[in-house]
Amino acid sequence: FWITPILTPPSIDPDGTVYFGGLSTFLYAADPDTGQIKWAKNFGQLCDPLDPNSNYDGGLIFSSAVIADDGTIYISPIYDSNLYALNPADGSTRWQTLLAAPTPYLDDPPQTKPRYQNPTVWSTPALGPDGTIYISCDDPNLHAINPDGSVKWVTRLGMVGAFTLAVGSDGLIYAASDARQLYVVDPNGCQVA
């Protein structure tokens, strides 16, 4: 099979399965011993649903997948406003959570659509010690999602988003933004630095 350029590191689960994607709408699961593709998950939709040979439009794999202790695969393609939880056995969707901002920001002009109404995710999700999934879009919000897909909290950090994330063993979330800021947030969503 043919894959577009791979821009992010692959992810490996405890049984050795390798998850990767090129700059396309497909996430692949490969057998570690044979290299054979176990399954491929397509996050795109045909541009022309009546033409099976048309191009796909939708989320592209631009970040790495994150694997929870129970094997659940978390990923959020770019040009998509959802966080997905996938079944490692076949790539089926266990749940998806919409990350779009529900209301305008305080600095948005009155009577306008919210600036970040349909944000897209550019970075890899991060897992907390308690299983919480932290995810950032290209808006100023940091999202905490419970392992069942429900939203735990959303907090705004500064004016510019697209955070890269890391979580310490103490549960503190470190969010580095495009604005050259490093924010530290506690597991309850309160900014501490």
Comma- or semicolon-separated keywords:
single chain; 193 residues; 4-stranded antiparallel beta sheet; 17 strands; 35% strand; globular
Provide the fold topology.
Elements: E1 11-12, E2 18-20, E3 26-30, E4 37-42, E5 44-46, E6 56-58, E7 66-67, E8 73-75, E9 82-86, E10 93-98, E11 126-127, E12 133-136, E13 141-145, E14 151-156, E15 164-167, E16 173-176, E17 182-185
Overall description:
- By secondary structure, this protein is mainly beta.
- It is built from no helices and 17 strands.
- The strands form five sheets. Strands 1-2-3-4 form a four-stranded antiparallel sheet, with no helix packed on it. A four-stranded antiparallel sheet has the order 7-8-9-10, with no helix packed on it.
- A hairpin with a 5-residue loop joins strand 2 (18-20) and strand 3.
- It is globular and about 50 Å long.
- Residues 112-116 have low confidence and may be disordered.
Strand share of the residues? 25-35%
Taken in chain order, the helices and strands follow as: EEEEEEEEEEEEEEEEE
Estimate percent helicity.
under 10%
Main sheet specs: 4 strands, antiparallel
> Using DSSP, what is the number of strands?
17
Q: Compute the number of helices.
A: 0
The termini sit apart by 47 Å
Uncertain stretches = 112-116
Radius of gyration: 17 Å
Sequence of strands across the biggest β-sheet: 1-2-3-4
Mean pLDDT level: 84
Structural class based on helices, strands and sheet pairing = mainly beta
The global form is globular
